[in-house]
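can u pls check wat happens w/ pyridoxal-5'-phosphate
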Amino acid sequence: MSSAHRYPETGVFYRALDRDLPLIVRGEGCWLIDDRGRRYLDACGGAYVANLGHGVSEVSDAVAEQIRRVAYVNGTAFTNEPAEALAAELRTLNPKGLDFAYFLSSGSEAVEAALKLARQFWVESGRPDKHKIIARSPGYHGNTLLALSASARGHYKKLYGPWLVPVTMIPAPYPYRCAPDSPAMTAQALEDAIKKEGADSVAAFIAEPVGGSSTGGSVPPLDYYKNVRAICDRYDVLFVADEVLCGSGRTGKWAAIEHFGVVPDIMTLGKGLSGGYVPLSAVVATRRVLDPIAKGSGAFKHAQTFSHSPAICAAGLAAVRHIKKNNLVERCAKTSIVLHRKLQALIDLPAVGDVRGLGLLAGIEFVADKSSKAPFPRARKFAETFVSAALDAGLVVWPNVGHADGENGDLVMVAPPFIVTEAEIDEIVARFKLALDRTLEAAHVR
Ligand SMILES: Cc1ncc(COP(=O)(O)O)c(C=O)c1O
């Protein structure tokens, strides 16, 4: 096969239409191997997805076996064994009360469904005026139109603005750039927004319990979600925890919200839920949310052909059982101590403003001036240049831009599979330094 995988020479089009993409033919643990035999250390599990690493035959065998037995059934007429068993496993893992799972394929779909569920809950509870959503900036919940409406992604939203719905934004807790007693850090911003919008019109507050790419692994203060829960209860607002990125064990607990000791009304899971072996996501909800719908219209008004599909649930079931059997969440928590200790060595390097995170989820924020925390001008494309230099050095990291002020800001995320070894962490740090050297040379920042 030709090695040019670039539009328009190839028949596939990807997001980047202006780049040649390596052709990956194999994965081994934390490593990806391309058609020329080049090895890449995948320090972000693709996109926080390959949590188990590549090559777990229990998962691939479970999918093959399921497809052999029955390929597809539709959830309007039937249930299936893997969906039932996966929901039962999730009950043992999810925060108490989040007992009911609705399976989908992507994080965006899960967020859409979660927000629709919140809306339907209020309508069927006799409060049809409650429809507004409050979300945070920076924050990201997906790319379908409702999920994008709830995301603070200016550069995407600009283009699709005429199609998006209004969502009220409050500032996200972002310790590197927010004062500890600011309304963003105490959750006072949420109460202010609910009062301003009118509690009778607000249906839900959605937040990533621990920041993903959008705030570069920012961890809110310990009492932040206790305040959120109390505010949501005071004003009858549902709390939706978007755990698509930070859930499924990534922060060293099954759900990131567990670190804060509160239970949301609705939670989304995705990305690492199946370890990336198939596209699988889930909306999980409490009885309090589902009962009024069950007793009212009797049906969640949201249908998708591939929801609860046996093959994706079989992968999720095998992945979750593999995680449990091998104590991978505990391993993630232990290994994260090593990861964060070694990543702290980066803080003294030029342009590194902050290194933070929780579990195997770390963000490294780049700045033009360490003392003022001034970001690089966006035109410099620092994060993009770094990611490309890292790829040249055989290291895969995930970039984010725009978080500092809505336009500028450069960071990269390190979020390796839970099986990453200490030697591989050393390799991540070494390659990171090499990529930074090359980026600084290219940007003449020395
Ligand atoms: C917190 C969060 N929610 C939702 C999504 C959307 O997931 P997907 O890309 O699978 O649609 C993402 C994707 O990055 C995410 O990080």
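The chain has a mean pLDDT of 97.
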